[in-house]
Write a structure and sequence with these properties.
This protein has 330 residues and is of the alpha/beta class. The chain contains twelve helices and 15 strands. α1 (12-23) links the parallel β1 and β2.
């Protein structure tokens, strides 16, 4: 790989990917939709190109001469209008695929989400890639990511090889989820569903990038792969570990999952109908992501890609402690 195009390069995952590519001597062109994104991409020693994932001329111009497109951009938030998710995650993916084909790029690697296999709220253990994709109406992020995944895999052909890497919860220095948790914890509004004893697969951001690079090198076209840290952990312990990197005590407050789910089911229509500001106190989308056992089988990635995590949980937590900014007041 000599030259790569990256969408979402100024984001949590995209920035780590660019840094890894540049360290390997790969020339990187990255899409940037704002001045802040342009500045971030430039600081990572990549060449920015102004535009977003629906800007066909910008996409094609940036992709020409590239060996690989890494599509990491997505609209990921707990609560927003469905149209915003669909525009970024579905229409955006269609545009990226079309541009890659028009620019003659031979390989496209997309970042999916293991959450696309989550449907009704029930435990899922040792899931593999043969599980059916789910598109619940109450989870616009995972529903639109599932639709995007179908588009990417269906686009595989003789001219363009397409592969999807599906990580579970991504964590590491600068992870947005941790910053989102803090105000809720401080307000006493964050509770562990059913005590948080259920197991979850996770994937450190460096391990996700490892999976992406291996997929570019060895991934079979039209296939998706799970990548994880290789050691499942209870949600309670995960939350405690992440908070410990900020010298915060663990969360002890617990709430029955069924009660929280019922409340979210009642509150979400009220917020949408009345167009209330902010988000409901709890949403089904978030509850489904963190509230039930969800563990993955990575046999396919290990055997076909040669995948193995490169960052352990202990080292990843130490990374986060070392990355703390003293004046954050945390």
């Amino acid at each position: 790989m000599k030259r790569a195009f990256v969408t979402g390069g100024s984001g949590f995952l995209g920035g780590v990917l660019i840094a890894r590519l540049r360290k390997a001597g790969v020339e990187v062109v990255a899409l940037a939709r704002s001045q802040a994104s342009l500045d971030k991409v430039t600081s990572l020693d990549a060449s920015p190109i102004a535009g977003d994932v629906t800007d066909a001329p910008a996409l094609e111009a940036g992709m020409r001469g590239c060996d690989v497109v890494f599509h990491t951009a997505a609209h990921f938030t707990e609560w927003d209008a469905y149209d915003r998710f669909h525009q970024a995650n579905v229409i955006g993916t269609e545009c990226v695929l079309r541009a890659a084909a028009n620019a003659g790029v031979p390989t496209l690697i997309a970042v999916g989400a293991a959450g696309v296999f989550m449907g009704k709220p029930e435990p899922l253990s040792n899931l593999d890639e043969t599980a059916p994709l789910q598109q619940p109406t109450w989870a616009p992020y995972t529903a639109t990511k599932a639709e995007a995944q179908r588009l990417v895999l269906a686009a595989n052909g003789t001219r363009l090889r397409t592969v999807v890497i599906d990580p579970p919860l991504i964590w590491g220095p600068g992870m947005p989820m941790l910053d989102d948790m803090l105000p809720m914890i401080d307000a006493g509004a964050f509770a562990l569903p059913d005590g948080g004893a259920h197991l979850m697969s996770t994937c450190h951001v460096d391990n996700v990038v490892e999976g992406l690079l291996l997929a570019a090198e060895r991934g079979r076209g039209g296939e998706s792969y799970f990548v994880t840290d290789g050691d499942d952990i209870s949600f309670k312990q995960l939350a405690a570990d992440l908070l410990s990197t900020l010298s915060r005590p663990p969360v002890e407050k617990s709430a029955p999952f069924a009660v929280a789910w019922f409340a979210a089911t009642l509150l979400e229509p009220v917020w949408r109908t009345l167009k209330l500001k902010g988000k409901p106190p709890v949403t089904r989308q978030l509850l489904r992501m963190i509230g039930k056992e969800f563990t993955l089988d990575t046999t396919k990635a290990r055997t076909e890609l040669g995948y193995a995590p490169i960052v352990s949980r202990k080292d990843g937590l130490n990374q986060m402690r070392a990355a703390r900014v003293p004046d954050r007041g945390l």
